[in-house]
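User: Can you recover a sequence for this backbone? Please restate the input before giving your answer.

Assistant: Of course. Working from this structure:
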């Protein structure tokens, strides 16, 4: 159904080298996520991670948890244009959803070096620019909070039975990462259609699917394959795919400049051709993760489609004035297209067919503290 990746393995298949002792509860046709070297998945580790993910004690002032910016009902995004940290600081970027994050070999909007979930968790916990959870300098306080909780007195030793003292920043981030890897979404109408349920997609959505995967629209080049993204990996895949693209949102200087500090991959490489290049996020559950783009600057799916139909964005006035359609750094796939009203509706219907109602209601991913 897509391109840009290795073949997808059949139902229930676990490739050589995968963690065969752990029940991933994979949707039909999904391979297992690739695990970092030395990492083992267990139910106990995942359950600990789920509790930590939803625990506001993982912020310095005990007002936010990971789930504050990653809400299950919004496919683990937050519905805000820009994320807001525990101290009220507004972040420069939009909170990415966590749908199928365990399959993504590059985890953030533009940092190619952030590739492991356990390491990435340190940034929201201890980062100071911007402040997210605000734990910098409070490492010992956090550990003391966890040690004192009776639930964690059961969960930590169960998850790390080989450790005399299982409480540490390392074990916290390993557990959160394990939970995040289980956030697998693969039961949307488009999946049911692929498995043979012909009535899972409406006639309009089927037309939208054909348009989506056509050279006329080019959508699938950046949002293809099982993940509906160009950045994807799994056990048994020959090599991870990592892609960043400039989609013509800005062009401040006629040379393709983006507003600071959101310069994309350029921030890390300092190569002019990387200006404004960001990861194309998965389109799975995209209906739920508005507003869109790295800076939340497009409010709706309809406006996103209009952006690509126009071949980029022209900002006529203001501090970000410039014609992104003319950016020399813009991806060649963002060339613009014309749709009839029927075709426009069809593409939107197809995008909405990527919404997985099981994923956003699965109790395995829900807040365990609310049911106590």
């Amino acid at each position: 159904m897509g391109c840009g990746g290795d073949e997808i393995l059949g139902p229930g298949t676990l490739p050589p080298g995968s963690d065969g002792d752990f029940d991933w509860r994979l949707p039909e046709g999904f391979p297992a996520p690739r695990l970092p070297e030395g990492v083992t998945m267990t139910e106990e580790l995942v359950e600990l991670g789920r509790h930590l993910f939803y625990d506001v004690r993982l912020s310095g002032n005990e007002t936010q948890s990971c789930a504050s910016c990653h809400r299950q009902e919004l496919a683990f995004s937050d519905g805000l244009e820009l994320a807001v940290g525990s101290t009220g600081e507004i972040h420069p970027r939009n909170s990415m959803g966590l749908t199928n994050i365990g399959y993504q070999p590059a985890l953030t909007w533009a940092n190619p070096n952030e590739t492991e979930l356990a390491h990435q968790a340190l940034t929201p916990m201890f980062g100071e620019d911007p402040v997210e959870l605000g734990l910098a300098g409070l490492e010992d306080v956090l550990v003391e909070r966890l040690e004192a909780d009776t639930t964690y007195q059961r969960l930590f030793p169960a998850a790390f039975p080989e450790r005399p003292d299982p409480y540490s920043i390392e074990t916290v981030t390993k557990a959160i990462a394990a939970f995040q890897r289980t956030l697998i979404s693969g039961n949307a109408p488009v999946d049911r259609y692929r498995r043979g349920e012909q009535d899972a997609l409406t006639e309009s959505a089927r037309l939208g699917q054909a348009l989506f995967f056509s050279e006329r629209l080019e959508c699938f080049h950046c949002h293809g394959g099982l993940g509906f993204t160009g950045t994807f990996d799994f056990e048994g895949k020959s090599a991870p795919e990592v892609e960043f693209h400039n989609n013509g949102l800005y062009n401040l200087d006629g040379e393709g400049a983006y507003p600071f500090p959101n310069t994309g991959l350029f921030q890390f490489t300092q190569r002019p051709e990387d200006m404004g290049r960001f990861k194309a996020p998965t389109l799975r559950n995209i209906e739920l993760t508005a507003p869109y783009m790295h800076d939340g600057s497009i409010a709706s799916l309809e406006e996103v489609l209009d952006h690509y139909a126009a071949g980029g964005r022209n900002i006529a006035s203001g501090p970000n004035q410039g014609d992104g359609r003319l950016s020399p750094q813009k991806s060649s796939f963002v060339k613009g297209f014309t749709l009839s009203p029927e075709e426009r509706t069809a593409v939107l219907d197809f995008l909405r067919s990527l919404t997985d109602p099981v994923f956003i209601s699965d109790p395995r991913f829900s807040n365990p503290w609310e049911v106590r």
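That completes the design. DSSP finds twelve helices and four strands in the chain.
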